[in-house]
Amino acid sequence: NQLCESGRHDCDKNAQCIERGTNDYECVCKPGFLDRSPLPHRPGRKCLERVCLDDTKHDCHAAAVCQEVDGPEKYTCKCRDGYVDANKNKPGRECRELVNECLDSSLNDCDPAATCRDTPDSYECECPIGSRDISKDPSKPGRNCFGASYHLYLEGYRVTL
Predict the structure, then answer these.
(1) How confident is the model over 7-21, as pLDDT tens digits?
(2) I want to staple 113 with a disulfide (CB 3.0 to 4.6 A). Which of 20, 54, 147, 148 is the partner?
(3) What percent of the chain has pLDDT over 90?
(4) Boundaries of each EGF-like domain copy (predicted)?
């Protein structure tokens, strides 16, 4: 009674059926496939293609982690720590290194009196209390602050300009 040869088994189509005696068999996922069977004591029932091992089979960015999943996509991509998605519609396909633009004034165009706040994708500027924001572009506040006080510290003395 050959269960494997007759096709009377529940092995995944990407698994090999191995006879283990009369009315007994074992399923083993073929090379290049990952065993994702729901029951650990019954392997080879769900085999997923290992697309993440072959860079030609996925389009994850070099700074992303590829993970096999069950479904039509076969895999997901996720940007590694220290990187952010440049395209939210296709996660992990275009990862950009996180940069804190507020640490270097050459990387932002905030007014010198404004507070610069780093955000995951960019930065925000905010004029100090008591000043008026006269920035030309309302979608980019804090670029030109009017009436802001600038403070200098000279040998322990505070001078307001």
Answers:
(1) 889 999 999 999 988
(2) 148
(3) 61
(4) 98-137
pTM over 0.85? The answer is no
CA 124, 126, 129: angle at the middle one, nearest 5?
A: 165
Cβ proximity of 135 and 144 under 8 Å: yes
CATH class of 52-97: mainly beta
CB half-sphere exposure, 124, CA atoms < 13 A:
7
Dist. CA 92–CA 58, nearest whole Å:
11
Domain ranges of the chain: 3-49, 52-97, 101-160
Work out the end-to-end distance of the chain between its first and last CA atoms, rounded to an integer number of angstroms.
96
